[in-house]
Amino acid sequence: MGGRVTTTVIDPATTTRTSDPSSASPRRSRRRGSGGGAGAYIVLIALALFAIGPLVAVVFNAFKNNAEIGTNPLAPPTSLSLDNFTEAWTRGDFATTMRNSAIICLGAVLGTCLIAGLAAYALSHLQVPGSGIVVGYLFLGSALPVQLFLVPLFFLWTQLHLVDNLFGLIVIYWATDAPFATLLLRSFLLKIPKDYTEAARLDGASDLQIARRVVLPLAWPGFLTVALIVALWSWNEFFWAITFIHDPKLRPVATSFLAFQDQHSTDWGMTSAAAIFMLGPVVLLFLVLQRRFVSGLTAGGLK
Fold this sequence. Notes:
Blueprint: H1 21-62, H2 66-71, H3 83-91, H4 94-125, H5 131-143, H6 150-159, H7 166-189, H8 194-202, H9 207-218, H10 220-236, H11 239-244, H12 253-263, H13 268-298
Helix pairs in contact: 1-13, 3-13, 4-7, 4-10, 5-7, 7-10, 8-9, 10-13, 12-13
């Protein structure tokens, strides 16, 4: 009548260990992750070679003669000769044109930072009537193609005797760069706490003193970003420069390189050396300030 109790003893030596499917999943995910990372690196390397390859070819050809370039235009030079650089510097008068571009860049950067800084301060820290309409107008001004203003602007500049005038070209750069620079600086200034300005007003500071001593110094990453963008754009700008500057002694480096290329189109080595004169300063400037440039685009006015 009583129930029988059966005891089963399992020998650990004879048992087989069943594999847990979940234990292998991290290994497989790591393998998939490493494979995806390798593919991403391959794509990035290919894109880097695609972007840097033409510049490397230009540098190689600047040290070659035409015969060596015709034999193998992509190979490194067999010898380093500076003859192309000296000839291009003399024939293209790049000492004058690079000085003109430096003057234009400096004037464009200083004027744009001043105009955009004061406008951004007014839109972010002052009670400006219709500030939303002004911001919308700035967005519209940044989006419109500049070719729409060419004919009336050329007629006006002719009447004001600003054609073949570096200052006239700098004023055009102020007008075309200021909307974007104002919007960028406004985004920095909006992140500055209003407590700073209120404390300065309690101390009796005027709006101009608050802007100059309190608000604008806190937005230096934004000013550095604006200065770098304006400098790169004004150095490489071609459309306004070729329209309003006709005197060879006043040409910036972008238009002078076009004239040099037309005159020496068959001398590839000398043309490559002239291209390095044009590209070298902006590439070095960007390489030196690239970290601050990227942080300025992503960071706010305060850390």
